Amino acid sequence: MQQTSAPSATPSSLATALVFTSPAPPIAWQPIKDADDTVIGHEIFNRSRTASAHTLESDLALTHAVLSHIEPAPLLGDGLLFLNTTFESLHGSHLDLLPAHQIVLEIPSLGHAASSEAMARRPALEALRARGFALAFNHSVLDSAYAPWHDLVNYLKIDFSVLSAERAVLMLQWARRISGATLIADKIESTAQLQLAKENKAHLLQGYAVSRPEPVPARVVLPSTADVAALAAVLSSQADAGALVELMQRRPALLFNLLRMAHSQALDARTPYQSLLTLIQAYSAEQLKAWETLLQAVATKIPQLPQIQYCEKVFPHQSAELAAKAQMRWPDAPAGSLQLMASALLLGHMLGMTVAQTADQLLPGALAQPVRLLASEWQAMLPALA
């Protein structure tokens, strides 16, 4: 919720969208393909940092963007997502919020400390594998100092930008000694390198000569420090789920982030929910605490602008009124489902999203379909924005 340049939106929504949305960290992602040119996943980058300069804070900001951004691109689609990490971020609770089966964590090298630290860091890497994450390493892991890690390698990247042709071929040959590792010819920058990688049977290919990185014009809704403090207070009090429902209905930035996270995680496929209460109950206390920690890292100190005061005072009343109108129109529908629909549609309306876009990005499938079918009726009930 930060005043900044507006996203792509209908003209009538620009003033409102100015208040509530902010650019995500400058994101790009690059396809990773197999030898048949099929995309199997993407590596995602925070373009404001070099590979060696990202930190726990930048990793948290990128994770928040992956989970909570306003699409145009579904960063968590059906393929794999390769994420760069630091050793600090590998211990972060934010990893509990990512769908482990889709995530490949790129493990940094230890440099000169490898001989003394590789064994000591093995338990943490084993724990990540046990949680379902795949691990990727660069070709330095082939050094004997990293022998304690060899049986943990899922993906092994051979960096063609720093190796001669002869050395790259040798690395591919050595890499095949690591049983079960998928070999990625990385940073392929010329057709000659691409041909060399294919001739030497690299399993996967990545680089400018394969497919260039694409910027992702994602936007996020940043919670304020007051939002996160309120969330922390409810969680620390160990109040029941009803208290969290009441908080979400008063704090639209928190509600938006929760709905987007659940949607990005495809939570509905594992734990169906059709109300805000059942959504909150689908998360464990540990996951909610991890979410609070993630939001704390990206929370913004926002001055109490009149527009924000208006939103936080009026949003609960407008969403309740919209739900009441819907209940009159569809009296047999569950009240909790109508309240979730109304809150989501009001959020989308404030952000310049159409009813269909809101249904697709904020609601579980069982609620999204009827909303799309009745889009014109919902649109007629939405309030005019100030």
From TrEMBL:
Alphabetized Gene3D superfamilies for the sequence:
EAL domain
Task: Provide the EAL domain boundaries.
Answer: 6-218
| Protein name as it appears in the record | EAL domain-containing protein
Q: Which organism is it from?
A: Comamonas sediminis
